[in-house]
């Protein structure tokens, strides 16, 4: 059975005896294991930072949800605007009657001020 080609820089022993001596291979393996362990430590550190960031994000999202819950809804805004427009329209409609009852009509104000 044929072996797949290796991507490492270590040459395999051949039938001619050319290759890395067995003692050297164990040194290379130890170096590679040390690199993998080092990479594992970096991954652990990055994961712990990620967990911390996710906790912070979760807490901030919870606070944001509480703030959003207190905002007025679209129907509330439409209702308040409709009531305000109705009141303003009603006041504009009865404004001349209110002025005549108070005796401060627009025509009387223009006559008194030459």
Account of the 3D structure:
With 114 residues, this protein is mainly alpha-helical. The chain folds into two domains: 20-71; 72-114. It contains three helices and no strands. It has helices spanning 22-69, 74-102, 106-112. The chain is rod-shaped, with a radius of gyration of 42 Å. 0% of the residues are buried. The mean pLDDT is 81.
Task: Give the tags.
0% strand; 2 domains; 114 residues; mainly alpha
Quote the distance from N terminus to C terminus.
118 Å
Please provide the count of β strands. 0
Topology as a string of helices (H) and strands (E): HHH
Assign a percent range to the helix content.
over 70%
Q: How much of the sequence is in beta strands? A: under 5%
Count of DSSP-assigned helices: 3
Query: Runs with pLDDT <50, length 5+?
Result: none
Structural class category: mainly alpha
Oligomer: single chain
Q: What does the overall shape look like?
A: rod-shaped
């Amino acid at each position: 059975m044929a072996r797949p080609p290796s991507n490492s820089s270590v040459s395999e022993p051949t039938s001619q005896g050319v290759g890395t001596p067995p003692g050297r291979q164990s040194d290379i393996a130890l170096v590679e294991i040390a690199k993998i362990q080092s990479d594992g430590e970096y991954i652990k550190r990055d994961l712990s930072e990620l967990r911390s960031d996710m906790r912070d994000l979760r807490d901030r999202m919870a606070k944001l949800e509480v703030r959003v819950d207190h905002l007025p809804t679209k129907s509330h805004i439409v209702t308040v605007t409709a009531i305000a427009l109705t009141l303003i329209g009603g006041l504009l409609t009865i404004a001349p009657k209110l002025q005549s009852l108070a005796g401060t009509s627009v025509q009387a104000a223009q006559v008194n001020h030459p």
